[in-house]
Structure formats: structure tokens, C-alpha cells
Amino acid sequence: MTSIIHSITVDTRDSYEIASWWSKVLGLPLHPDDNPGDPESLIEMPNGIRYLFINVPEGKDLKNRLHLDLQPTDATRDEEVERLVGIGATVFDDQRRPDGTGWVTLRDPEGNEFCVERSAAERAATS
């Protein structure tokens, strides 16, 4: 027997607000049934995996044990980092190297870490 990943779930203080932010990041809509004040909000990704945000009473205190690695599809890594900071992300750990390799770890508006890697075109240009 095996399992598949059905949902990636994020604990949050305001599911609708943070799901709306991630909707901008991913360029995907919130589920049509989601509304402000709902205890959970959902983004359905094209690959079938669901990105689910659920309200919890406690705040985030420690580093994530699991995080997303994003790869821009139509921009460079640096352009995507600039875009995400412009909509509310903060830089947490900048691992960009002088040769153009590396990644940037950001935090979303609720402090959840995620990374932005180089685009496929950037990787191909340096291989």
C-alpha cells in the first residue's frame, strides 16, 4: 500500500487573509466557497494537491520543519524575490552566491518560511 499527498495544510491565525496572499504568489484563485472569517481556506493546484489554510489559536514560534521551495516560471529568481517582498514577504536568509546560484528564504505575512530558487531558464544557462 502507498499514500498520496492530498493536501499541504498550514496553521494560521486568519486563513482567508493568508490564503489570499498565497493566491497572489501562486497566481491561483481561492476556492469559490471561501469567504473572510471562514475557519479554513483552500487553493487547489493544477497538479491536484490542495493548499489548505486552517485557523488555529496559537501563533508560530519556531522555524518551520517543512517548507515550500518555489521556482519562478516567467521571471528570474531575483525578480520573483522582489515581487514577493513587494506584496508582503520578508527576506529571512539570503543564500544567493556571486556565481548566480543559491536561493532566498522568505517569510510570508504570518512568518512561515519558504524558498525561492532559480528559474529553469537560469539553471539551464549555468549547466
From TrEMBL:
Coiled coil segments of this chain: none
UniProt domain Glyoxalase-like: residue ranges: 7-116
One Pfam short name: Glyoxalase_6
Top-rank taxon, per record: Bacteria
Record's protein name: Glyoxalase
